[in-house]
Amino acid sequence: MLSHRYVADRKEARPPNLRCMSVRAVRIAATYRCESMRTTTTIATGMRGNSAARGCQDAVAKSGWKRLETGGTTLRKISTAATRMVHPCKWQATQVNYASKQRRPRTFAASSTTDAPAEETFEYQTETNRLMDLIVNSLYSNRDVFLRELVSNASDALDKVRFLALSDSSQLGDRPDLEIKIQANKDSNTIVIEDSGVGMTKSDLMDSLGTIARSGTAKFMEKIKESQETHDANLIGQFGVGFYSAFLVADKVTVQTKNNADSTQWIWQSSMGSTSYSVKPDDGEPIKRGTRITLHLKEDAEEFCDPAKLQSLVKTYSEFINFPIKVWGEKTVPKEVVDVEATEKAREEAKKKAEEEGKEPEEVKEVMKTEYENVPDWIVQNENKPIWIRNPKEVSKEEYNGFFKTTFREFLDPLAQNHFNVEGTIEFRGILYVPGMAPFDSQQNFSGKSNNIKLYVKRVFISDEFDTDLMPRYLNFIKGVIDSSDLPLNVSREILQESRITRIMRKQLIKRSFDMIKEISKREDKSDYNTFWESFGKNIKLGIIEDSDNKAELAKFLRFYTTKSGDETTSLDDYISRMKAEQKDIFYLAADNKEAAENAPFLEQLRKKDFEVIYLTEPIDEVAFTNLGEYQEKKLADVSKEDLALGEETEEEKQKEEKVAEEFKDVTDFMAGVLGGKVEKVVISKRLSDSPAILVTSKFGWSANMEKIMKAQAMGDSNAMEYMKGRKIMEINADSPIIKDIKSRIADNKNDPQATEVVSLMYDTALLTSGFPVENPRDFAKKIYDTMTFAAGLSSDARPSESGIPAVEPEVVDPEDPWK
């Protein structure tokens, strides 16, 4: 028989080591000493050795007993826990056996049958001071929002009393004005926020302010729903923690309140870091109805005592609250005062005139002038009304434009607006605008947030940093206001959580934006769409790259210059309407600018066949077309790449091409041998009519234009660039005199040095005309100079001097010649 003494310590309970316990049971004695009751009890359990001792310790710890009573019941519970750890199957059978018997007290014995512990329910415990610290210091990232939260609470209180007054007009009593007043006092370092809302009773104070995360507004809404009354209350609160944001700036908060249902005015007080609050009858300045909150500001929050700061916060967050918000401050008013100088001058003139006429001077009235002075007064901050909640038919164009300029600080009228109201599984409303011009930093906006979508919840501004959640990057130029109560915001209303609702809203906003752009494009006055395209064309192209789901819709908004458009841009739809019957693809050419594209040799045969070609003149254009791939079931074909199909060929044309290829096979082989690895192959061209040769690229590599763009990238990957480069293929014009001359030269001498030099020079020239950089500018320049020398019929000793200036023979001057 082994014994083990175990002193209970709830801080050092260890989990049982079940693998070390034996199924075969031996009796051991373990002594459990309860420090709280100073009693010792011997326990007999089915365990063996040191593992048994450890199991007994864990059994005692697992039983969760803080206090130990002597007797069979206590011993049975400890024994049950130990048996359960040693042999779970045996313990489960014991529970079934025990459940069938009537519970009765019995003495402990070493038995296989044990009692099941009764199920117990416990309440979560909270460290209030820690919770308050989390709410104040972790929930909100910007302490400016304290005023938004408190004003929203005041708005809810006003909405409640307005709702109650619909059925009982006496609720308004002798305070019919529904308003919010905010006053700062620099001397006492306080801010007072007062509303004439419904107020609170003592129980309301304890339930709403004394219970964290209990929303009085949510409770009020539940009562309305239960009563099944129709209502239009625009209540904002829902989480029950907004009030505590006051401690972001205050170390002490006092709430004075009066409710119509309670004859007593109450005062509630609490301090930052305190775990308690006080409520008592208030014998201070009486409140007819409503609530007055006094914030005793922290030392580092003195900036909020400035009326200008408070006015700015109200205009930012609460500009569209239903009720007037008045801030105590200074406003400029006109005042009539006596103009002393003008009055004296008038009197002197009257006196002088009277003396001249020999009369008594008449009395001259005082001359008045207008001066302006600053006087303290209540100033309404939210005079701008939320037009998005009105019926679109009732809003004029001037109102839309005025709201746009005021809200987004713009000076030009918008090109278009879309006023909408979405109803269904989710509800939200708003107004979207297409600005009249692009911002000056539009290029930087592609990589940053635009802050152009202002998100409101029941007319309370939440944030303008959700534009990436609600709008794709390429539509960041769209400005607007969205108001919804269904948004999945976090408690601080600073994070928009990803959900089905967010995806639905995003889809709706994209659709509304497309509707605006489409409406502009269909106007008879094309200048509006030209303005739009000049300002935001790059955004549409970026959308084709990034938004594969909507690229077909975005392609309708594209505009480009073409070989037939002249000085006007054209759409892809207009291009297709002008296509030749035999033309199967949409042709395009990427170049640095329109002039370079017009002079490119790739277009020679296309012009002869009267095929239209689109000019891509911006770096993003070619990437957008590559991602688009096709439009209206017609492929987009780059005329600078191999295997260009210029319509269906007849059998006669095919035979002719095969014959020419066979005839010039010795030329193509010779040129391929001279150029070596510079080109993949040399072939007879179908697209040249004047130029002797061009260089085209393989189908799946970069074009010359794209290669140039990628080389210009500051953070480009040289290894990836080598992999993505298109293979160069030289196409020659069989009708060119230069090609025919090469053919005749190599017919006589396959190693003709002059033919070799011509091929080398032709390759460098084709690099330039095809959009590639010359590989070795110095060698190219030498070839040009040698050609010029040869063309001039000069000998090698007549070349320029080392200084680059031709040598000049000295002239002999006759000293007797008067003209010299």
Commentary on this structure:
By secondary structure, this protein is α+β, with helices and mostly antiparallel strands. The chain is built from 26 helices and 24 strands. The strands form five sheets. Strands 8-7-6-9-5-4-10-11 form an eight-stranded mixed sheet. A hairpin with a 2-residue loop joins β14 and β15 (460-463). α1 (49-62) crosses α2 and α14 (526-546) crosses α19 (619-628). The longest helix has 23 residues, at 145-167. The chain is elongated.
Topology:
Blueprint: E1 3-7, E2 27-34, E3 39-46, H1 49-62, H2 72-86, H3 88-99, H4 128-137, H5 145-167, E4 180-185, E5 190-195, H6 202-209, H7 216-227, E6 250-258, E7 266-271, E8 278-281, E9 290-297, H8 307-317, E10 325-338, H9 340-357, E11 368-380, H10 397-408, E12 416-422, E13 428-434, H11 442-445, E14 453-457, E15 460-463, H12 467-470, E16 479-484, H13 500-521, H14 526-546, H15 551-555, E17 561-562, H16 572-577, E18 586-590, H17 594-598, H18 604-608, E19 613-616, H19 619-628, E20 630-631, E21 634-638, H20 651-663, H21 665-675, E22 681-684, E23 693-697, H22 704-711, H23 718-724, E24 728-732, H24 737-748, H25 753-769, H26 777-792
Parallel strand pairs: 1-2, 4-10, 14-16, 18-19, 18-21, 22-24
Antiparallel strand pairs: 2-3, 4-5, 5-9, 6-7, 6-9, 7-8, 10-11, 12-13, 13-16, 14-15, 17-19, 20-21, 23-24
Helix pairs in contact: 1-2, 2-3, 14-19, 24-25
